[in-house]
Amino acid sequence: MTTDRRTSFRDIKSELERRIARRIWPPGATIPGEEALAAEFGVARATVNRAVQELARSGIVERKRKSGTRVALYPVREARLAIPLVRKEIEAKGAAYAYSRLSRAVVAAPDFLRARLALPDSAKVLHLRCLHLADRTPFQFEERWINLDAVPEARGEAFEEIGPNEWLVENAPFSRAEFAFRAARAGRDEAALLQVVEGEAVFVAERMTWLAGKPITFVRMVHPPGHRMVTEI
Amino acid sequence: MTTDRRTSFRDIKSELERRIARRIWPPGATIPGEEALAAEFGVARATVNRAVQELARSGIVERKRKSGTRVALYPVREARLAIPLVRKEIEAKGAAYAYSRLSRAVVAAPDFLRARLALPDSAKVLHLRCLHLADRTPFQFEERWINLDAVPEARGEAFEEIGPNEWLVENAPFSRAEFAFRAARAGRDEAALLQVVEGEAVFVAERMTWLAGKPITFVRMVHPPGHRMVTEI
Fold first, then answer.
1. How far apart are CA B97 and CA B118, in angstroms?
2. Which of A17, A221, B36, B103 could cross-link B129 (Cys pair, CB 3.0–4.6 Å)?
């Protein structure tokens, strides 16, 4: 390391990362204590501490109160997946958002929905089909069911101006959600709506939400080929 | 609320959730202070505090130091996505895991890979093709490239007994990763390996990792129809 200028905690952090990358300190190894490192680098112990703290936060090392700091064996095991409003997702791409409600009907909850949301036989739901467009190109076909027992206010909303996702965020927030993502082949209707060839591979995201134990909604969001859901750590 | 038994913080939490669900306290509303709630429910202020803390942790309410506690407008915006080893993912389903290395070769980095990982023209990579099975049924086809400049130890590993994911976790941990998920149609080779019909919709997960700024690996994981990636909040 250079000593021409004052050594910053970032310099220390880079050097520690380099040693871990080069396996000078292999996974599972205990790294020298802060005092030893401070002496080696000729810096204050607080500088070393800050570098080690940042490495610990990113999961590269693990700090144990008694046994010191170890290079992590399984450094990162979780990514955070943002759940954006589709409008914001489209706008974040710099594209113009447009929304179209295709259909709206109050219906008896279909069997699959009653099973999934544990609804009673008599349950009424609002069934909505919507299209979200980015620069006039179909971006997402949304098929949604809202539990009218949990969200009676939805009966009074046409969903012509505002999409159900955005409306629900303001009117029926959730405390629990389940997400599933899968690949499927576009059926005839979906293909027509998404302007793709029938049978093309589409990316399907499904979401169920609850508030205070009550099922709120189930939604299926279908995206045309080329759609990628991305995240990073 | 019942007063037959001692009121627990869970009772308070349920009641607060109910009021939020029923929009007695709508999104954005400031809820009564802890002292007022403690008086209303006839419990210690610490009991209310614990209930409110749990609601805040789940994102249903937001605590502001000066303005008190508000019902959240956008209650949950992120899910945590577990990134398990494929072996653990299969074992968690109660299925027997099996692994098969299909091919292994040191090659010049292909163009797409050099572009994605910003590798120099001369870069050598280890190209691996593997199959992961659950109860003898193909679960994931893995195609992977390992940057030999960053992980020279991979040259010495046959990957016949241990999958590259598991080996890398122990030998080249990452500090940064990018993930992408998409739907695709199975090509002829993939379809044969996964024992599905060519052109079927497959779920593709891609991952790139870095340690200390150095690209480690790029992997494409292809799953047969029916595969679902799930998470919850």
1. 35
2. B103
Please report the ipTM that was assigned to this predicted complex: 0.70
Which chain B residue shows the shortest CA-CA distance from A71?
B173
End-to-end CA distance of chain A: 28
Q: Mean pLDDT, to the nearest integer, of A68-95? A: 77
Mutate to test the interface with B, among A175, A194, A218 (most CBs of B within 10 A): A175
Q: Which among A21, A75, A83 is the nearest to B77, CB-wise?
A: A83
- Domains along chain B with CATH numbers: 9-71 (1.10.10.10), 86-223 (3.40.1410.10)
Q: First CA to last CA across chain B, in angstroms?
A: 28
CA–CA min distance A121, chain B (Å): 22
- DSSP state string for A27-62: TTPBPPPHHHHHHHHTS-HHHHHHHHHHHHHTTSEE
- Chain B: nearest CA to A153, how far in angstroms? 10
Q: What is the pLDDT of residues B7-42, one digit of tens each?
A: 888 889 888 988 887 778 888 889 999 999 999 999
